[in-house]
Amino acid sequence: MANEKTGKKAAHGPHDHRSHEPLCYDPDYRNPPDHGHKPPANPRYPDPRIYGSYATKNPPRYIPHPIEHACFKPRKDDCKPPQTCNGHDHDLCVRKDHRMLTADEQNRFLNAFTQINALGALGPLVDIHSNSVHQMHGNPRFLPWHRIYLLRMEELLMMVDPTVCIPYWKSSEEQAFPAWLLGFTPTVNLAGGPHTVTRNIGAFATLPNAAAVAAVMTNATFNAFAPALEGVHNSGHVWVGGSMGIIPTAPCDPIFWMHHAEIDRIWAAWQTTHAGQNPPLAGAAAIMDPWTESETDTRDIAALGYAYV
Ligand SMILES: [Cu+2]
């Protein structure tokens, strides 16, 4: 069966006509064509769109995504080009307060999170956060770097379910952990081994309240605003505790992404009334490595393809 093609060729005789050839390309997923690609040097980082400079330089062998199978329509009848799942990539992702999600939207978020984890795509993204070479905490890169980081996570989730956007957790208002996440403690394969999410809610900090966030918003310059917001953000991490309290494991917990979406939302709201107040970054510091976006690319969330409601 594997050599069907070559066997066919050998069997071709003078009475075989071109009309016997199939009219349309009919892909056989059980016997994919050999493109001659070498396996990636580091199969944990196959996709440069998500993992930036971490991605292997060798072209990965193309493996159709399960979702592609679901939407792939070969259209044998009329020989028109096959239909794929294109069209969702450029939709605006609308990030909602998690309290506004329907049960279906909650399930879709958790299912997509579980899927990218099962595919081995989440662990490498978490590992990027543990590498301090990216200088993403305690300096002006904090807000723009995590804005791109969230975007990469959202892109991963949308590969599994194009309807999923990262919800935000307005912890200052809620003063509580989202109940629907309490039972969700995934195990993520990190470079250092598997890590199972733990929490120690409320044990080591108080959650900043609405007044604390309002005080952050009164800062007039980026240099004053950003460290104040990072401080509020730090307390959220410590309040959840467990995995969230440690930089290398924090992104294993889905609340990490929802917490950072809230921090990013607060920054976006502040930006609308502080035009021209941007992170003081230049040269290499202005590049959000391991990705290629520069600080200027991070200023406009609509241009990045998402919005907060
Ligand atoms: Cu971080």
Task: Write a structural description.
The protein is mainly α and 309 residues long. The protein is 37% helix and 5% strand. It has helices at residues 4-11, 48-51, 66-71, 103-118, 122-129, 142-160, 171-174, 210-217, 222-240, 254-272, 301-304, and strands at 93-95, 187-190, 193-196, 306-308. The strands form two sheets. A two-stranded parallel sheet has the order 1-4. The model is unreliable at 1-19, 59-78 and 80-89 (pLDDT under 50). Copper (II) ion is lined by residues 129, 136-137, 146.
Secondary-structure topology with pairs:
Elements: H1 4-11, H2 48-51, H3 66-71, E1 93-95, H4 103-118, H5 122-129, H6 142-160, H7 171-174, E2 187-190, E3 193-196, H8 210-217, H9 222-240, H10 254-272, H11 301-304, E4 306-308
Parallel strand pairs: 1-4
Antiparallel strand pairs: 2-3
The structure holds copper (II) ion (CU).
